Known about the structure:
mainly beta, three-stranded antiparallel β-sheet
Amino acid sequence: DDESRVETIFSVSSVDVTDGFVSAEWACYSVPEGSGNAVLSAKGHVSGELSPAVPDAIPKVSEGAYNLVDVGEDPFYKNLTSVGYDYSPPFQGLSNIRRKPRYSTGTLVDQSGSAWEDRLVLHPGMLYTALQSIFAAWSFPGDTHLWSLHVPVSITAITINPYFTPLGSGGKQETMQYESFIRALEPSKVVGDVHLQTVD
């Protein structure tokens, strides 16, 4: 409930750095209030390939989509609210949503504002809003495909071009174009891909 508190501990170990590559093991533990016992909540392996930060380091996704239907932001977020999601800024940044079954495209606006979190390379609000675009590819508001809460349980890969972050020459991107694909639909699992690109 709203009054409960949980301490979380995130650890990274076995870090291995070589020329152009880094890998590590990670684990996330939770300590419920008053228990004093750490419980393993999630663990995994992370690896990264490092390359130069240039504008065209990541190839553009094709723009050959057709037969797309417009979805307003209000109906999209009202539908998510009816299921039990209660998103608000900076976790409500999708607009210009267009879709067809298993595919969606539109605009993602970073709503993190000018507070301290603005200095993050990738703001959690922007990341979670990108994941919402999978809902847009999966379900049209009111079609009953999305009828219960779903949360991300794994991420296979994230590729970031640091050129388009506060660390690079391209700077922080306030607005991105998104393209989302449903890779697999199972009774209790949805697997999707999300691509974010600069508007230009």
